[in-house]
Design a protein that fits this description.
heterodimer; A: about 270 residues; alpha/beta; Glycerol-3-phosphate (1)-acyltransferase; seven-stranded mixed sheet; two-stranded antiparallel sheet; 10 helices; 9 strands; about 40% helix; B: about 300 residues; Rossmann fold; seven-stranded parallel sheet; two-stranded parallel ribbon; 2-acyl-glycerophospho-ethanolamine acyltransferase (chain A); Plipid/glycerol_acylTrfase (chain A)
Chain lengths: ~270, ~300
């Protein structure tokens, strides 16, 4: 069946993941080799051929042990999440699996919810974040949350307010934060309007409408920039103003990376022309 | 020590009794059902735990430890019967424990009380609230029994109380909640969902209960064995045919076409996982399971084939 679709490269890289798969090809979180294979084969095609993702600073993602990957969130659909997962799986040696934190509403959707779980993208709960980090996994976080994906095209690359929960968890679990800028996501799905009625129908926080109506990503060249890991000392019990200060540092670093990436992006276009 | 097991004729309780006898303990049991072929060293009193003769067993024999396993988990029993046995029975047992100087009470509860919900964490620890009250209202009697037993932790000062929340036990006996669900050749699934099921071998479950009874621990503990498996894998490994049905059809099809009879609340458990974290118990007792997920499912399946061959 669909197992045949899985590319040999993906199959070989999955075998090299540092996940404790059992004889059924399942890890303790229910991540399945088969589902992962198909998911990453599709993401791989998008990563290599559709978005032609360029990666910079991948060496900043630790080879072993836990880390929190903190990125800007793009408008429309989370293409950024998918491409960061793909870039860490395809561009990194050895490959690793980044665990995303999926919006809770997606879990109640048939087919979709279980698929997210089988490929290691668990519902966005602090319990999941802590457990995965204590288990030595890579956790991908978008502190802008739905505010980020709900952004309109005119507000592209303007960071929304960062939540602070991620910082408390990073401090509590003592893991480094790898700041990330994802460039191209905003242009891939240029959201110009939110269809509230459709959102309600799908039980989603918003439903993006693009100039060509459907929220289908455009083939835009994307880039992922990984910054040097940031270490913060603390217990996670610091007062809000201290945490806010740390969060501001991470946000500033992500903004710098975005500026770096967008500047470089302009150069690429200039080179191409 | 002298151990009293309520509901001793149940398949899983028998395993606990045998293990205790092997470990050199004196075992007495209460059950309304008989236990044919109970081994030497086990004394059975055939009565209801809520009736007067049961109180007399406590009064006369003065057990050191009580393991309360007289709960109904299947839904063939009416709601009133479940309430009477599960909640009123638990209340009676804990009253006798307190009254007749029992040193330790072990309540054997279920992990299903945590309830299945889309927004619940995958691994539940003991701090998680029992969501089943709202997601699976038919389990309210078990939730109430669990919370009632937990109450003894602070109200019965002279007794050590242990509340265990066990995942599904599966094994050669072919008995238990999950075994009944998997009894037929076809197993219903909610289309578009494939929740993780947390399953352990029944011998491992008995081992954990005995360990809880013998050790010095007190508190609420989740009991689990190997990591969970998706329902589809569980069906495949036990040679069952999974029948995915849309939720609206599933509700009407349960109990028909050879599918198991389940209350409406059970649908949540066919959509979302109930998986527990047993780290607290492992840390407190050093418990380790003996059968992995594959051996557990295979042991149930092999015994089942034998039973079918014998026409049972």
């Amino acid at each position: 069946m669909w197992r045949r679709v899985i590319s040999d490269e993906v199959r070989e890289r999955i075998e090299r993941l540092d996940l404790p798969f059992n004889r059924w090809g399942l890890d303790p979180y229910g991540i399945s080799k088969d589902h992962l294979g198909l998911f990453l084969t599709v993401l791989g095609q998008a990563h290599k051929h559709y978005f032609r993702v360029r990666t910079r600073g991948i060496e900043n993602v630790p080879g072993t042990g836990p880390a929190m990957l903190v990125s800007n969130h793009s408008g429309g659909l989370p293409t950024d999440g998918g491409m960061i997962v793909a870039s860490i799986f395809f561009d990194r040696e050895p490959p690793r699996l980044a665990h995303g934190m999926v919006e809770k509403f997606a879990q109640s959707w048939p087919f979709m919810g279980p698929w997210f779980s089988r490929v290691g993208q668990l519902p966005g709960l602090p319990e999941h974040a802590k457990r995965l980090l204590l288990d030595g996994r890579l956790l991908m976080v978008f502190p802008e949350g739905a505010r980020g994906t709900g952004k309109l095209y005119r507000d592209r690359y303007q960071l929304e307010r960062f939540g602070t929960g991620f910082m408390r968890i990073a401090l509590e679990t003592g893991v480094p934060i790898v700041p990330i800028a994802f460039i191209g996501g905003e242009e891939a799905i240029p959201t110009i309007y939110h269809a509230k009625y459709l959102a309600k129908l799908a039980n989603a926080p918003y439903f993006p409408i693009t100039p060509y109506i459907l929220p289908v990503p455009l083939p835009v060249n994307c880039e992922v920039l990984y910054g040097a890991p940031m270490h913060f000392e603390g217990t996670g019990n610091e007062p809000d103003h201290v945490i806010d200060g740390y969060v501001a540092q991470v946000k500033a670093r992500v903004e710098e990376l975005i500026a770096e990436g967008r500047g470089a992006g302009v150069n690429h276009e200039a080179e191409a022309s | 020590m002298k151990v009293l097991i309520t509901g001793i004729a149940g398949a899983h309780a028998q395993l606990v009794a045998l293990r205790l006898v092997d470990n050199g303990h004196e075992v007495i049991g209460i059950d309304v059902r008989p236990w044919q072929g109970a081994p030497r060293g086990v004394t059975i009193f055939q009565t209801d735990v809520r009736k007067r003769p049961a109180a007399d067993v406590f009064r006369v024999h003065r057990p050191d430890v009580v393991i309360h396993m007289a709960t109904v988990t299947h839904f063939n029993a009416s709601a009133e019967q479940r309430y009477r046995v599960n909640l009123r029975g638990t209340q009676a047992v804990f009253r006798y424990c307190d009254e007749f100087g029992v040193k330790k009470a072990v309540f054997v509860g279920r992990h299903t009380i945590y309830g299945a919900a889309a927004d619940a964490p995958l691994y539940r620890n003991e701090d998680e609230p029992p969501l089943a009250v709202s997601t699976f209202p038919e389990l309210a009697d078990l939730v109430a029994a669990d919370l009632y037993a937990s109450r003894a932790l602070w109200s019965c000062k002279n007794m050590r109380t242990v509340v265990l929340r066990l995942v599904y036990a599966l094994g050669p006996s072919g008995r238990g909640t999950l075994a009944s669900f998997l009894a037929g050749p076809r197993v219903p699934m909610a289309m578009g969902f494939d929740p993780l099921f947390h399953v352990m071998h029944e011998d491992d479950a008995a081992k954990a209960i005995v360990l809880a009874a013998e050790s010095e621990i007190a508190g609420v503990f989740n009991i689990a064995g190997p990591p969970p498996v998706p329902l589809s894998v569980l069906c495949r490994a036990t040679h069952r045919t999974a029948v995915p049905l849309p939720e609206s059809v599933l509700k009407r099809a349960l109990g028909r076409f050879g599918l198991p009879r389940l209350p409406p609340g059970a649908i949540a458990h066919l959509k979302h996982p109930v998986v527990v974290d047993n780290a607290a118990f492992v840390e407190a007792t050093g418990y380790d399971y003996g059968y992995d997920e594959h051996q557990t499912m295979a042991s149930f399946c092999d015994a089942n084939i034998l039973r079918e061959d014998r026409g049972l």
